[in-house]
Structures are given as C-alpha cells and as structure tokens.
Input
Amino acid sequence: MAEETGMLASKVALVTGAGGGIGREIALLMGASGARVVVNDVGASLAGEGASLSAAEEVAETIRAAGGEAVTNGDSVAEAAGAERMVQTAIDAFGRIDCVVNNAGILRDGIFHKMSEADWRAVIEVHLNGSFLVSRAAAPHFRKQEGGSYVHMTSTSGLIGNFGQANYSAAKLGIAALSKSIALDMGRYNVRSNCIAPFAWSRMISSIPTDTPEQEARVEKLKQMTPAKIAPMAAFLASDAAKEVTGQIFAVRMNEIFLMSQPRPLAKVHCGDGWTPERIADELLPAFRDSFYPLERSADVFHWDPI
Ligand code: NAI
Output
C-alpha cells in the first residue's frame, strides 16, 4: 500500500484550495506518496464567489480509490475559525498534522489606477491573510511535536512583477516574507517553511487570448506545463528528505525547477559627512544607475517557452 511505503508515509498533510488546479495535483501526489490528506476547498469561482465541496470530494475519493486516505473540509482560508476547523479536521481524522500547503487563491486583476478597494482586499484576504491564518492554526501542533513543514504558493508576479496584478503581487510577495518569518521563528522547533512560485496551465491563466495562429501555438505550448508538474516539489518539501531545506523560494515550470534569489544589497555608496538630496543626485545616481533593475515582468525574465 502506498501509505506504508511512500516518501510521505505516516505524514498528515492539509492542502488548501485542493479541489482543482495545482492544489488537486499536490493532494493526489501526497496521497499516493503515503500521506493522509485533508483536501480543503471552498469551491469558489476564479474571482472567489460561490461555494461547493464537490470538487474537494472528488479529489478525496480519487485518493481513496488509489488506496490512500483523505477527508475533506470546505471552510474558507480567509476566516480564522475556518482555518482552525481545517487543522482540527486533520487532528480529528488522523490524530496529527505534519504539513500545510497554502495553495488556495483567487484573482481580481485590474490595472492599478482602476483597482477597487474591494478587489484589493479580497485578494489580500485569501492569499496573504489566508496563508497566515492556516499557518497560525497549525503552528501550536508543529511546535508541540517539534516538527512540521509549510509550503506556500507565491508567484513570480510578486517576486518579479506583472501588469494589472497589484493586489495579487503584493499578497504573493507578502507570502514570501511570511514564509521566511515562519522559518526564522519556528526553526528552533524543527519547523520548516518554503515557497513555490508555480507556472501551470490552470483556470487562473486560461483566459489568455488565442485570436491569432501565433497566440494559439503559444497557448498549446503553455498547456503542456500542467499543474501535475508542480506536485513533486511540494511533496519533496513536505518530506523528511527536505529536512535541511527551509526559508527558500523555488520556481517550478514544467520540467524546470529554479532556486530563486532573495534581495541583498547590490551596490553601496558612503558619504562620511552625510548625504544631502543634491549630493545624492550628483554622486549616488551615476554610481547606482547601471545597477538599477529594469521594469521587468515575470515573462521578461522567464522569456523562453516551458521545457
Ligand atoms: P485554481 O483557481 O485552479 O485553484 C485555486 C483553488 O483555491 C480553487 O479550487 C478555489 O476554489 C480555491 N479557493 C479560493 N478561495 C478559497 C478560500 N478562501 N478558501 C479555500 N479555498 C479557496 O488556481 P491554481 O492555478 O491551481 O493556483 C493555485 C495556487 O498557485 C494559487 O495560490 C495561485 O496564486 C498560485 N499560482 C498559480 C500560478 C499558475 O500559473 N497557475 C502562477 C503563480 C501562482
């Protein structure tokens, strides 16, 4: 049986937003790798509306049909009581919790000067506050058992940039900082925290237009970077084989896995008797100018087709 022999044997994992897309594939692979899985999904539309447990139930049933163990939870990650309940579901069903995958997400894209406060708040609620709430609900258990692994989905939209996603980018970069903070604060309890910036064909990016043959050809290629390609990295990070891995950010795109950089000082000037605005203009600007980052988007940095 998978659960006795797999890389995640004896582990209990909670995967949020696991009714579809990337979360579904992570839940399925974790289940097949021996983990007992709580499949959480509120069953929302892409913009975060509506609720249905049926997708999560299908995923749990698929895990069970393959010989694994899974239960469902339909709470929203954006509510503290819901986050508590999904962790409690793991404790009630399986007696413990070893891994939290913060994957649930919604999109409310819009160009910044037209972005509404409601769209800003909705995205921050689900991604950033949701990742905090679910992580926080699991933290006492991780602390008590002196072990646990967090895997958070960040995005190159936040790490690098993208048009029309101020809410999402801010939330996703916030999640990278949340992950690092958890890694620092809970390292003493043998708790690890890492991020994955996935690239996958899912409903989140399926709205790319296919009006021209070139666009159509590109979309056909993009469709090959399936959500299933993200799952092995998440399962590895949940396992004891990753015990030395914490505070890291990985990007995963089809068959490529990247270790992402984290900000460090890039250039330095020093002025013994202090800076004035004029001196900054005269001395700092020419010294730093060549080191300034161009206004790149994720697609400028990951400019080749997925391989
Ligand atoms: P998806 O839309 O297919 O799946 C997200 C799931 O989260 C849905 O099943 C939805 O019902 C659920 N959900 C939404 N709000 C929820 C809430 N409040 N509580 C619980 N569940 C909730 O999206 P996809 O593409 O699978 O994305 C998964 C994660 O990966 C997200 O965090 C996303 O931001 C991130 N990501 C995805 C990329 C991609 O290329 N697909 C790129 C970068 C990041």
